[in-house]
Design brief:
Blueprint: E1 3-8, H1 13-24, E2 29-36, H2 40-49, E3 54-57, E4 75-77, H3 78-88, E5 93-96, H4 104-112, E6 116-119, H5 122-138, E7 143-145, H6 148-157, E8 165-172, H7 182-186, H8 190-193, H9 203-211, H10 213-225, E9 233-237, E10 243-249, E11 254-258, H11 264-271, H12 302-313, H13 317-333, H14 339-350, H15 361-380
Parallel strand pairs: 1-2, 1-5, 2-3, 3-4, 5-6, 6-7, 8-9
Antiparallel strand pairs: 8-10, 10-11
Helix pairs in contact: 1-11, 3-4, 4-5, 5-10, 10-12, 12-13, 12-14, 13-14, 13-15, 14-15
The structure holds NADPH dihydro-nicotinamide-adenine-dinucleotide phosphate and magnesium ion.
Residues 9-15, 36-39, 58-59, 97-99, 102-103, 120-123, 147, 199, 201-202, 205, 263 line the site of NADPH dihydro-nicotinamide-adenine-dinucleotide phosphate.
């Protein structure tokens, strides 16, 4: 029996990597849905390759001609169309590779329709970890992390007894600015930040890797996924991106997951969840392999310290952290603020009171919008 899978964000970096895994295991998967935001033409090519799959375009198609690119096939359109497609497609497993806060409702819709969730969209967990995990728990559905660090921890934790864990060590490449001085960071341009040394990813997460906001989001993600408080999650800079994370046990043993940096391995593990399938991805060659580790510098990379602060503060602080960062990153990419302005804007937004927020979707979405408006107001003052 083929596993019925939905790939959300099929045109992105995670989506394309997932398609490599699906093509490699064509006999094992039946794609039932692909979604994109604007790159409709690419989606229609997928529909031709996998005629049984539904397709959803949630934003404006990149070119008007794209909408008549497909013969007689219904295209689910807009945000509601995407949610309807998720409910209609009958997936057993949904891979969510949508970028940003826009991924939250699709994660919930997938779980509510009875699908297991393979989650690359870390924002779903950062914004609404309790809600997403509770929705899954009520239906006895797994949430399988795809983020490489969390995939590593998820698998490592299964090797030992449940209460053996002391702390989780999340590795970070350090990004393109690992060795840059504070003065040089002030002048960093989008092109510099987009040149990631070890991973090839979408623009937003690549900027987050440069600022270490990505690691900040991942610390919060780990806290929610593995029910840990902030003190039990450490970040270790590891420029080679070969050790994807580690777990330290109470008896002192540290276990690590190693593979060459290739997202197709954690995607493969998530798509084949429940079984072990051979894979060609991420195979490591130990000849001449050197691995190094460093302490992260939270002075030059304040986004990491801000994430710990938001996690400790609780309430809607993580929602505000994520939303302010999304807003600031797009302002940086649009040439409106300096690279160092990203953390300055986030720090200023987090000065407001985000405590005591409810854990329901509406309250979370409202907090997200409020934080974006706060970031926007700061930018329109021209301070950054
Ligand atoms: P990309 O920008 O490459 O792709 C994003 C995908 O989401 C595209 O298919 C895009 O459609 C779609 N999309 C964008 N905005 C919306 C929206 N508002 N509604 C619905 N769909 C939308 O991102 P990545 O693949 O790099 O990242 C995706 C997620 O996975 C992020 O949460 C990221 O943090 C996480 N992740 C990514 C990793 C990676 O290696 N790339 C590693 C670990 C986690 P279109 O192409 O039509 O615009
Ligand atoms: Mg990661």
């Amino acid at each position: 029996m083929k596993k019925r899978i939905a790939v959300l964000g099929a045109t992105g970096s995670i989506g394309r990597n997932a398609l490599d895994v699906v093509r490699e295991g064509r006999d094992n998967f039946e794609p039932v849905l692909f979604s994109a935001n604007s790159r409709a033409a690419e989606l229609f090519a997928l529909a031709a390759e996998f005629p049984g799959a539904k397709i959803a375009v949630s934003g404006q198609p990149a070119a008007a001609a794209d909408t008549d690119g497909i013969d007689g096939k219904r295209v689910y359109q807009g945000r509601d169309g995407l949610l309807a497609a998720i409910r209609d497609c009958g997936a057993e497993l949904t891979l969510n590779g949508i970028s940003g806060a826009a991924g939250l409702e699709p994660s919930l819709a997938a779980l509510e329709s009875g699908s297991a969730l393979a989650l690359a969209n870390k924002e779903s967990i950062v914004m609404a970890g309790a809600l997403v995990l509770e929705t899954a728990r009520k239906r006895s559905l797994p949430v399988i992390p795809v983020d490489s660090e969390h995939s590593a921890v998820f698998n490592l934790l299964r090797a030992r007894e449940e209460d053996a864990l002391d702390e989780v060590l999340i590795t970070a490449s350090g990004g393109p600015f690992r060795t840059w001085s504070a003065e040089a960071l002030e002048k960093a341009r989008p092109g510099d930040a987009l040149a990631h040394p070890t991973w090839k990813m979408g623009a937003k997460i690549t900027i987050d890797s440069a600022s270490m906001a990505n690691k900040g989001l991942e610390v919060i993600e780990a806290a929610r996924l593995f029910s840990l408080d902030a003190d039990r999650i450490k970040v270790v800079v590891h420029p080679q991106s070969v050790v994807h994370s580690m777990v330290r046990m109470k008896d002192g043993a540290v276990y690590a997951q190693l593979s060459s940096p290739d997202m197709r391995l954690p995607i493969h593990q998530a798509l084949y969840y429940g079984e072990t399938a051979p894979s060609p991805w991420g195979r490591l060659d130990f000849d001449d392999l050197s691995l190094t580790f460093e302490r992260p510098d939270t002075e030059r990379f304040p986004m990491l310290a801000l994430a710990y602060g938001a996690l400790r503060a609780g309430g809607h602080y993580p929602v505000a952290y994520n939303a302010a960062n999304e807003y600031a990153v797009s302002a940086f990419l649009g040439g409106k603020i300096a690279f160092t302005g990203i953390s300055a804007v986030c720090a200023a937004v987090l000065e407001a009171d985000w405590s005591g927020g409810a854990e329901d979707l509406q309250a979370i979405v409202e907090a997200d919008h409020k934080a974006r408006r706060a970031a926007e107001a700061l930018l329109s003052n021209g301070q950054y």
